[in-house]
Design brief:
This protein is mostly helical and 198 residues long. The chain contains nine helices and no strands.
Length: 198
Amino acid sequence: MRAATRERVRSAAVRLFARHGYAAVNMRRIATEAGISTGSIYRHFATKEELFGDLVTAAAAGLRATAERFRDSRTPVESLREFTGEFLADLRGEGDFVDFFLLMHQAFTQGASAGPEAPPSVRELVERNTELLRATVRLISLGQEQGTLRPGPPEELAICFFAVFDGLVTMRSALGEEGTVPTVSTVMGLLLKEGGDV
């Protein structure tokens, strides 16, 4: 029950931070959104900063896990297709995925510009994002060597690949259910060599 309440608090914080901004939200408002008393929220998180740090740490762990999957892969097309499928399924699904992604995107952007002044959890998020980008560049280079991914600078292709996901989340946030989520084949078509397996 404690774990379920903690998860409700995290979900409430994600929604409120993403929709109203971190500075505009206090612990009382998060508690109300989560359906618990203000006193109860402090049993789970001592401060708003701790709660936000917990969310950012979870995002950084996800980025690290994906980077490790990409680094360990010898099958670039399969790895990229699997990642794309998971991301698009989350985007279509219920829950706080869109709000969480937007919140972490904002944290990443602010952390990247703040540099060493950013909170430790945000600096970790920036580092893990960079790690994932490097792993993706390596994976794309490998796919090009294997003749399955389109030619071109791997760094540019990796940036464009992730920019697609950023754009899709933004459109889903703005348009809701009317924001069309493309198929895995459509997204993978951006990377695959012409005539390759979609």
